[in-house]
Write a structure and sequence with these properties.
The protein is 29% helix and 26% strand. It has 176 residues and is an alpha+beta fold. The chain starts with 6 loop residues before the first strand and ends with a strand.
């Protein structure tokens, strides 16, 4: 259930964040992974404030416009504000008879020089990499495909990761 199972997760370059269940794994339902969880990351205390607002009825249809106006008025953007994208992929399983855990972290920041948000960088450049794959004819199957299905082809996966890396979007990994 969304907004439940709140836990704290630490990232070296960011610090401690709250992680909580969210609902966005629909395109991964057909993958051969028996247990999968998606959690959203926010600064500590954020989700509890959202839960409190929900529990106090501030998102009800007759209150939502008033809530939005209040929040918009209270939040004043600063020129120092910037976005960041933080992602952790954690895999647990058995490889060659040994229990193994692999963690891949992505921490990306707003590009001040080019004035490109991190969210635009991480999502837009990923989409652009796929467009390049299509333009070169490397992937020419017909139909509708979730982006995640491309990762099953090592050549396509490596191209996308290299494309992102060339734009300074990099995953750090650790195994234990």
């Amino acid at each position: 259930r969304a907004m439940t199972e709140i836990e704290q997760i630490e990232f070296k370059k960011v610090g401690i964040l709250d992680a909580f269940n969210s609902d966005g794994l629909r395109s991964l339902l057909n993958m051969p992974i028996p247990d999968m969880v998606e959690k959203t990351l926010r600064f500590p205390g954020h989700i509890q404030k959202i839960i409190d607002m929900r529990n106090n009825g501030l998102f009800e249809p007759d209150k939502i416009n008033e809530t939005a106006k209040f929040l918009t008025k209270e939040w004043i953007a600063s020129p120092k504000d910037y976005d960041q994208t933080i992602l952790r992929l954690k895999f647990k399983g058995v490889k060659n008879g040994n229990n193994i855990t692999k963690i891949y972290d992505l921490i990306d920041y707003y590009d001040k020089q080019k004035n490109i948000s991190s969210m635009a960088r991480t999502t837009g450049y990923t989409c652009a990499s796929v467009v390049n794959i299509l333009l070169t004819g490397t992937f020419n199957k017909k139909g509708v495909f979730a982006m995640e299905t491309l990762a099953s082809d090592n050549k396509l996966f490596d191209f996308i990761i290299r494309y992102l890396s060339d734009r300074n979007i990099q995953f750090e990994n650790s195994s234990f």
